[in-house]
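Intended use. Records like the one below are meant for learning the mapping from a protein sequence to its folded structure. Do not use them to infer anything beyond what is encoded.
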Amino acid sequence: MDDSELEARLRRRLHERFDGHRAPSELRASVTAGMAAQPPATRRRVAFHFLFAGSRQLLAATAVVVVVVIVGLALTGRDGSVGVPVVSPSPSVSPLPTATAGGSPSTPVASATPDVPQASVPPISTAAWSGLAFQHLQGAPELSTVVPWAGGYIAISGSNSAGQLGAWLSRDGRAWTELPATTFGLDDPTHNTFVIGGTACGSGVLIAGEDASGTGILWFSQDGYAWRKGAIPGAVIARVRESMIAGSRAGAVVANEDGPVVDMTSDCSSWLSVPLPGPLAAQVSAVGVFGTGFVALDASSPAPGSQPGAWWSNDGENWSAATVQQAKGNDFQAVWTGTSGLLAMSTTGDTPGLETLWSSKDGHAWVKDDAADPFGARLSGEGVGDPAGSILGDGTRFLAYGSPGDAADKPIEYLASPDGVHWTRLAPRGDLPTGLSGALEVFQMRDGVLISGDAGSWFATAVTN
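Structure written out for the chain above:
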């Protein structure tokens, strides 16, 4: 590995944990310098290239071209996709999802149709999981964001601190095709255009971004490669990022910066600003989908004496205040959902050990529930007091991953739960991830788990017997 590649990897690790594009250069340099020799890490989710120039003789140049072509064919396969498992059956081709949403944001943006991976969209696995069968995805990109929707997955690779981001499309989460560089405006030469998050909406997908001027942008697509560009309704809470948008077949909601307000859509095109009941000082920090409805939580409470709040809705338009256990000074940051329960996280500041887990059966009432975290907190070393594991929730089940207590140097464990109360440890098998030297990303998928890091990507198919 040469110096330039090492530097790019370290920069990516900085971006994974922090919103690095907003940090001053002195802080970036200080943090990056202290990241050498760090073991692989997990994080709670709350989300390059260079060219050879010239040669001394034609024969040498020809040899380089031949080698590059051979390697390229080996990595991408004949359909132009990458990340296909080393050994896998030939998948069937599925049609693109039928459009049901009534319209899409204005300003159509034309783009060439890429070679979409020839794979079908797997059904959502609703049976109880008992294990994970890992398989290395040959040549897959290192992904930092994955957004599930009816037509598969949209993903982002790279980080702005290391150069231009990349956008990717997959039907099954295993085979990936890179979208044109212009997608979401990621060809911005200043590297100041970002993807904040995304969600399913109707039968399509919404991707929220921010351009170089700080303007919020919302992209909508019914097929994953033809996109329409519009403005994000209201104002975006940048510090919450991944938790600021949530959607389903019924529509989507976006957190609004103007007090206790959300913006909602039922057609993925027109938006309605909806005020929530409660104090005007309240600020929506996180939204989520639960069943066919929505929940929202409040981030206005870091100040001593203030009480966090929450809301629930069956349709995104009519909201009721939820009951929240007294916890003055707590600040909700994220919410996750399963089929029969919800979990949320609050904090009282940036000091490690001040994070609190909450649980709810239906979003109508919330109580503190530190026992909901199966991994507990780190007991020593860097990050002492921080959660030893991370939690995800996709509306079907919760996934927890990490190492209990101080066992950060041991293999990562994975647990699944339908309600956030009863957890099942998933038995790993197959080609387990190896060679990871930095933080890794874990994503819930319809039928398993996707793990991505600096040593590659692995898909772990759920075992249900």
